[in-house]
Write a structure and sequence with these properties.
Blueprint lengths: L1 H4 L23 E4 L7 H4 L7 E5 L2 H5 L2 H11 L3 E5 L8 H14 L3 E6 L1 H12 L24 E5 L11 E6 L2 E6 L6 E5 L9 H20 L5 H17 L1 H5 L4 H21 L3 H13 L3 H19 L2 H4 L10 H19 L15 H9 L2 H4 L8 H11 L1
Parallel strand pairs: 1-8, 2-3, 2-4, 4-5, 5-8
Antiparallel strand pairs: 6-7
Bound molecules: fe (ii) ion.
Fe (ii) ion (FE2) binds next to helix 7.
């Protein structure tokens, strides 16, 4: 029974069996640290940086975060054109407008300054810069016939999405979350300046942190997880459990923000390689149809999916228990579930879908859509039927 619904790839330390084969992708370069954004011109020197497209959102433009980057680039001699109309949870049409803007201005480099929505948009615009047809034909395909794109520099202003480390990008199209992956050979450089995350209100910082937590947990237990991806998942989980609670009381503390930025990066690397799971599959219809913020949707679904996953696949989670926990697998898993539930309680994240206007009668259609997101459900530690998914939404309602 367990073997049919749960992969058994998670191994304990000292496992003497033959190593599992795996591949691993990571951005071409990662530059991390408070103030590192000031080095952007130097980091871009290897690429043609004459005309730069800076992509951001209206809030970051008004808050002065994006203009700081414009000033740094302009002072170094780059010509910068700015597109600042990326909304939260962007639609394909929003990104297409940005792609047209890039083509009109004949830019050589794309810089994204923002949260996951902006960074994903920057990846699409840069990754598909050489692709002349509408992007709708590329939704949910894997790099089919995409010519080389432009260099992409990603400067996250949130600590959560990990979009600076993932190859794919999510957009909404016809009320559904769809995925795009651009040309796989263009350089992507992550420039993570934790001072940028200080512009984020605490409640959004917490929601982003829960997204990173979900990435760590889902990637750790994913069917596509590898020994290397688990290194990142585990360290991300450890950092998040230690540094997300202090965000509640010390939201302006740069050290707290830095630790969470580091955790989100590791979780992003992990999920880029191992993939996410059922929490994300169930969260996407809530974002696409009802515009529930991604991190909040994850927070409401995570405890329920985690309970089910752990019950079916305890080995997939036991190694996340504290290093000095010498108890059996069941007790270790229970400790992980308890720790996650306790953390969500401390963070006081929303617990009911009804708080966001989700009507109970819509659950079957939400479940029907979630059930079609096979790349996530088939990667989840245990299999979920459509009826299981209905039950999960009801538990979270
Ligand atoms: Fe996510």
């Amino acid at each position: 029974m367990w073997a049919q619904s749960c992969r058994s790839g998670v191994r304990s330390e000292g496992d003497s069996r033959v190593s599992q084969a795996f591949s691993f992708r990571i951005p071409e370069a990662i530059h991390f640290g408070p103030g590192v954004s000031q080095r952007l011109p130097e980091l871009m020197r290897a690429y043609s940086s004459q005309r730069v497209l800076l992509i951001t959102d209206p809030g970051l433009a008004a808050a002065g975060v994006a203009p700081v980057v414009v000033d740094v680039l302009t002072a170094a001699g780059s010509e910068v054109v700015t597109f600042q109309d990326i909304p939260p949870e962007p639609h394909l049409a929003d990104v297409e407008r940005c792609r047209s803007f890039a083509a009109q201005h004949d830019v050589a480099v794309v810089v994204g300054v923002g949260g996951g929505s902006v960074l994903d948009s920057a990846k699409i615009v840069g990754g598909f810069a050489g692709y002349c047809k509408p992007l709708v034909d590329q939704l949910d395909r894997e790099d089919e016939g995409v010519p080389p794109g432009l260099p992409i520099f990603l400067l996250p202003t949130t600590a959560g999405s990990g979009a600076e480390a993932t190859a794919g990008a999510i957009v909404t199209h016809r009320e559904r979350k769809r995925r795009l992956t651009g040309c796989p050979v263009q350089p992507v450089v992550a420039v993570i300046d934790p001072t940028f995350t200080r512009s984020l209100p605490p409640h959004i910082a917490i929601a982003c942190g829960v997204d990173a937590l979900t990435h760590a947990l889902e990637s750790y237990a994913a069917r596509r997880a590898s020994p290397m991806s688990r290194l990142y998942s585990r360290e991300a989980y450890r950092l998040i459990m230690a540094w997300l609670p202090p965000l509640v009381a010390n939201a302006d503390d740069l050290n707290v923000r830095s630790k969470m930025a580091e955790a989100a990066l590791y979780a992003g690397i992990a999920v880029a390689n191992a993939g996410a799971g059922a929490v994300h599959a169930l969260a996407y219809p809530l974002g696409g149809k009802i515009s529930v913020p991604h991190g909040i949707a994850n927070a409401m679904l995570l405890p329920h999916v985690l309970q089910q996953n752990v019950a079916a696949c305890p080995e997939a989670y036991a190694a996340l228990a504290q290093e000095n926990d010498a108890r059996g697998v069941q007790e270790q898993c229970a400790a992980v579930v308890d720790a996650v539930q306790h953390l969500l309680g401390v963070l006081a994240t929303p617990t009911g879908l009804k708080e966001f206007g989700v009507e109970e009668c819509t659950i079957p259609s939400l479940a029907a859509e979630a059930y079609t997101i096979r790349r996530l459900l088939d990667n989840n530690a245990r299999a979920f039927s459509r009826a299981d998914i209905v039950a999960l939404y009801q538990a979270a309602w």
